[in-house]
């Protein structure tokens, strides 16, 4: 069974995709960029503010799916500047009290809407 997940507490999908899909006991999130769900615009500030917003958006999507950050098993981080890695780590790490998930991080040429960070996750349902 495949179940699309949607919440108004995270930015709406801006294309033909779901915020997340629950399938086979897992929740697969779409990548989240730092959009304010109330305005649909990128949050102001630097990489720390952008990372915080992304993590808040992901947390809201996971909650809507009946799970949370403590059940994330894998995440992928996309950065437009790998030099931001340490700052992203500092914010990202604050969202995991113990046993953070497996993770990969990549530098990419560009992200949607000029974002500096995008993160996607896979969690236990």
Q: Can you give me a brief rundown of this structure?
A:
The protein has 125 residues and is α+β, with helices and mostly antiparallel strands. The protein has two helices and six strands, in the order βββαβαββ.
Compressed to H and E, one letter per element, the order equals EEEHEHEE
Tell me roughly what share of residues is in helical segments.
Answer: 10-25%
Top CATH class:
Alpha Beta
Strand order of the largest sheet: 1-2-3-6-4-5
Largest sheet: 6 strands, mixed
The total domain count is 1
Given the structure, what is the number of helices?
2
In whole angstroms, how far apart are the ends? 13 Å
Shape: globular
Question: What class would the helix/strand composition place it in?
Answer: alpha+beta
Tally the beta strands: 6
Task: Enumerate the spans where pLDDT stays under 50 for 5 or more consecutive residues.
Answer: none
Radius of gyration: 13 Å
**Reported CATH architecture:** 2-Layer Sandwich
Could you name the CATH topology? 60s Ribosomal Protein L30, Chain: A
Classify the beta-strand content into a percent band: 25-35%
Name the CATH homologous superfamily: RutC-like
Q: Provide the residue-averaged pLDDT.
A: 96
């Amino acid at each position: 069974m495949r179940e699309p997940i949607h919440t108004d507490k995270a930015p709406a999908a801006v294309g033909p995709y779901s915020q997340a899909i629950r399938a086979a006991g897992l929740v697969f999130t779409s990548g989240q960029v730092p959009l304010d769900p109330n305005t649909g615009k990128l949050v102001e500030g630097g990489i720390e503010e952008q990372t915080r917003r992304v993590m808040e958006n992901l947390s809201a999507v996971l909650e809507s799916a009946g799970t949370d950050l403590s059940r994330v098993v894998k995440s992928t981080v996309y950065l437009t500047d790998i030099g931001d890695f340490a700052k992203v780590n500092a914010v990202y790490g604050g969202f995991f009290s113990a046993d953070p998930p497996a993770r990969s991080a990549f530098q990419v040429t560009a992200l949607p809407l000029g974002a500096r960070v995008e993160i996607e996750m896979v969690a236990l349902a």
